[in-house]
Amino acid sequence: VEIRKVCRVIKRASIPKGRHLVRSTWIFGIKRSGLCKARLVACGYSQIPEVDFTESFALVINDVSWRILIISMLVQKLEAKIIDVYTAFLYGDLYEDIYIKCSEVHGEDEALHLIHAIYGLVQVARQYYLKFIENLRKMGFSGGYPDS
Amino acid sequence: LKSKLSEFHILDGLNYLNNVKNIMKKDTRSGLLREYVQELKGMLPNSYEEAWNHPDEKFRDRWRITLRKELRA
After folding, report:
1. How confident is the model at residue A148 (pLDDT cuts 50, 70, 90)?
2. Which residues 94-133 in chain A show a CB within 8 A of chain B?
């Protein structure tokens, strides 16, 4: 399985002055198959608005719209396909430079500079949403009036 | 079966249950798997250090593999 690089290790001295480090924590889980899972997540509460993120709104479908979609699918006898994007939020591109503190692994003189979004960031859902619609548009889909 | 499983390490028990799909009734297997997963969830580490230096060798090996995988990204 291809591993996508989401961050790079940098020296703390190379971080621009005045920038603070976003805290991180580890989340552990175990699957029914016995597979152990571990993920480094950002502590979104330690992000500073207008510095580490600007907007966080991510559009999701309205429940009424969803029902209309399902009914029109049934009426017009259309086929539906369900897709599942594994680790979806890790695909979001970041507009801000975010530096993560991960001293338990990299020590006090190093930090992580994020290349892509990671779970826990305030803007993670929005960044994935933007990536998702960008790809839908590339595929030839177009949004309705409110989306444009 | 329960007494046989109790002799195993919890991870070996889980592996055993995952590999005996045709021998056991689906409901029995599913119930036992649920019990195992619940027990394992109560044993999850709380920090990186706890996972990396887990006192149990089998858990430690698994946590180290998964932590290395995450750190490669």
Report:
1. low
2. 104-105
Q: Using the beta-carbon criterion (under 8 Å), do A32 and B44 form an inter-chain contact?
A: no
pLDDT at A79: 92
Rg (CA), chain A: 19
Residues of B in contact with A3 (CB under 8 A): 69, 72-73
Structure tokens at A89: 């939020």
Would residue A118 be called left, alpha or beta, if left means φ above 0 and alpha means ψ between -120 and 50 degrees? beta
Give the chain A residue nearest B62 (alpha carbons): A36
Looking at chain B, the number of H-run helices and the number of E-run strands are: 5, 0
- A1: pLDDT strictly greater than 60: no
- What is the distance of C-alpha B13 from the center of its chain? 8
ipTM of the complex: 0.81
What's the predicted TM-score (pTM) here?
0.82
Residue corresponding to tokens 């595929």? A139
Among A33, A38, A105, beta carbon nearest to B66: A38
